[in-house]
Amino acid sequence: MESKAKTTVTFHSGILTIGGTVIEVAYKDAHIFFDFGKEFRPELDLPDDHIETLINNRLVPELKDLYDPRLGYEYHGTEDKEYQHTAVFLSHAHLDHSRMINYLDPAVPLYTLKETKMILNSLNRKGDFLIPSPFEEKNFTREMIGLNKNDVIKVGEISVEIVPVDHDAYGASALLIRTPDHFITYTGDLRLHGHNREETLAFCEKAKHTELLMMEGVSISFPEREPDPAQIAVVSEEDLVQHLVRLELENPNRQITFNGYPANVERFAKIIEKSPRTVVLEANMAALLLEVFGIEVRYYYAESGKIPELNPALEIPYDTLLKDKTDYLWQVVNQFDNLQEGSLYIHSDAQPLGDFDPQYRVFLDLLAKKDITFVRLACSGHAIPEDLDKIIALIEPQVLVPIHTLKPEKLENPYGERILPERGEQIVL
After folding, report:
1. In this structure, are residues 188 and 174 in contact, taking their beta carbons and an 8 Å threshold?
2. Cα 270–272–276 angle (5° rounding)?
3. Could you tell me which of 267, 328, 269 has the C-alpha nearest to residue 300?
4. Which residues, including other chains, have CB under 8 Å from residue 187's CB and lie 6 or more apart?
5. How far apart are CA 343 and CA 323, in angstroms?
6. Burial class (CB in 10 A: 0-12, 13-18, 19+), 364
7. Do 7-222+382-428 and 237-376 share a fold?
8. Euclidean distance between CA atoms 32 and 177, whole angstroms
9. Do 331 and 257 touch, CB atoms closer than 8 A?
């Protein structure tokens, strides 16, 4: 008698760390992977991004028959099974989920929401967002299959529904994965306090009573951190924009600049809509807003090279912005030493992201030397601890697997079992 086929879930990476999630679900002759980024460890100061360097430093996992064979990578793991059907899914555009896609075997299909495809292609316009393929032009971005919300893809006998969720990367999604015997859910990154809260709630309804819920827990990673009294408390994306407008109104005769994370195009769009000053974006960001939302906005070039899609009549000379104190709120992305002394800079989840990045202190010191006031206006893309509990309560999973967190033990499942896997561990359902 033939033994019954089993569904397996393997946690290749993304355990006891924030980012770099690579999880595999396999059934019979098919398997899928999600996501395809790398861990963020700038303190390692690695000499290069070669595949061997990344694997040796545990920033990406050993994977059989998944990396581009032209890279010359030799698999040294224990997997010996051959598969007929393979696919990779991206939940969203953040680098810890997407940065490795140019190292993916070109023969393996890569699926994501069409909004994420658009964002990644635009952000990698100059070839400096993703790790570049050594076999292609510098600005190459590998082929992605853009899906509509709630599309279902079949990979062998595995079906994957891609469901939109609220996150600070436009086009973020969760995955509902079904094999003939099991129903598995991957949250990707999500929250309830952004512009698209209803999408996360609708996802929870679709995922209700899932057998296995793999759920991010970024916000429970730092319970020992006390709130910074010098930082403006922001409770939602809408609240953030209101604070930014207030800062503009309180500083009528002062140069005001800002920066944000480019994948959060909805925040930029809201700032343009609500700002009492004329918003001027760096040209690449302006091109992204035009492509995603069809929004035309005034822009400037921070470096040489023109973007033909942009309307020349909307260009503002860089020198005009440097002299301005009253008319413009403009996005600054480099050459911060050119800003006016005593000006105001608003840091809204831009690079460098925080004190875990060695460049953050360097950046703050640079601003301090010019007496530039630094205001951090941050709104996390990750559900706060209370909302993590609410999401679990809405889904009522049979088994909870906390991932994408430094403190998985702090996420509890009142509705069933909880598993805390180790890196490389496989669960057989």
Report:
1. yes
2. 110
3. 328
4. 165, 174, 203, 213, 214, 215, 216, 391
5. 11
6. middle
7. no
8. 10
9. yes
- Separation in Å, CA 198 to CA 168, 190, 283, 388: 14, 12, 32, 15
**269 DSSP assignment:** H
Q: 10 Å Cβ neighbour count for 127?
A: 16
| Beta carbons of 309 and 122 less than 8 angstroms apart | no
Q: Where are the domains of the chain?
A: 7-222+382-428, 237-376
The pTM of this model reads 0.92
Question: Which of these, 78, 145, 149, lies nearest to 111 by C-alpha position?
Answer: 145
- In three-state secondary structure terms, 305 is coil
> Taking the CA of residue 189 as centre, how many other CA atoms within 13 Å lie in the half-sphere pointing to its CB?
28
Q: How many CA atoms lie within 13 A of 383 on its CB side?
A: 26
Q: How far is CA 85 from CA 3, 7, 28, 175, in A?
A: 21, 15, 10, 18
Q: CA–CA separation, 238 vs 336, rounded Å?
A: 27
Distance CA 321, CA 343 (A): 12
CATH no., domain 7-222+382-428: 3.60.15.10
User: Could you read off the pLDDT of 152-174 as tens digits, one per residue?
Assistant: 999 999 999 999 999 999 999 99
3-state secondary structure at position 160: strand
Structure tokens that stand for 276 in this block: 């009492």
Sheet of 328-331, strands arranged across: 298-300, 278-282, 328-331, 256-260, 344-348, 373-376
Q: What average pLDDT score do residues 89-107 get?
A: 96
What is the C-alpha to C-alpha distance for residues 100 and 366, in angstroms, rounded to an integer?
32
Q: Are 258 and 280 in contact (CB under 8 A)?
A: no
Q: Domain 237-376 - what CATH class? A: alpha beta
418 forms bridges with which residues in the sheet? 400
pLDDT digits (tens, 9 = 90+) for 73-97: 999 888 889 999 999 999 999 999 9
